[in-house]
Amino acid sequence: MPTASRVCDEVMHSAFARQALEQGSCTVMGAIPRASNDTRLVVVDHAGTHLKAVYKPASGERPLADFPPHSLSLREVASYRLSAHLDLNVVPPTVLRGDLGAGPGSLQAYVEDSGDDDAVTLTGVDGIPADHTPMFALRTEDGTDLVLSHDARDGLRAIAFFDLLANNADRKAGHIITGSYVPGSGPSSIGTYGIDNGLSFHAEEKVRTVLWGFSRSSFRVEELDALDEVARMSTELRSVLDDCLEDTEIESLRDRAEQLAEAGSFPEPPEDRTVIPWPPI
Description:
Layout: H1 4-23, E1 25-31, E2 40-46, E3 49-57, H2 72-85, E4 94-97, E5 105-109, E6 112-113, E7 120-123, E8 133-139, E9 145-150, H3 154-166, E10 176-180, E11 191-194, H4 221-232, H5 235-241, H6 247-263
Antiparallel strand pairs: 1-2, 2-3, 3-5, 4-5, 6-10, 7-9, 8-9, 10-11
Helix pairs in contact: 4-6
């Protein structure tokens, strides 16, 4: 579990980043390549500090059959708000901005990859790290067999737990980053974060993730407390979500928390639908 000083640093960094994202002057640098929706790199200037961020305008969202139009950026913000409310701190600070060039959208602190983490790996069968749980195998076009696996550290567990609550339908390996969003900070600011949370909070069960290795693990006390908090759906929690999600989606979130608490452990992958996002990397 994180130390008290680590939690304190996270709260302080998150508060500063959120204020910068909300109030800072933004310069849009250009499109981020290979993104499925309009996604732009932004430099935010606030209080003498420059912060990189990712801007996702609602107007640039590709239509989807199962999610309402122009709602993905709102789900990005709801993901951060839920993570912060529960002190999970697995989603980088994310706010709504309506004054940027392409119109209203989400603005999320950019996580710089630390470059030295192997929490999720893609290796040959004989190269799976000893502390990793293999998830699935795949074969490349040249016939090479590879296995995707992940470790069981707390950082990944927190993301896997959050994804169950948020009903994340797209937790690819590439959407998990270990690094920092605080410019010029030291090792204390490094964490493991889940990004690209737009395909979340659907009212129907849709969890698709590469982090099924926690299945059958009993929930910890702090995880049960978080489930109880969501199941109670206090006025405070509802108020931070209701400008981003529909009432039915908030009620589904509450119901999921109740069901998970009753089950008492991370669920196994269901057998009646697709449970791995594509592409998984």
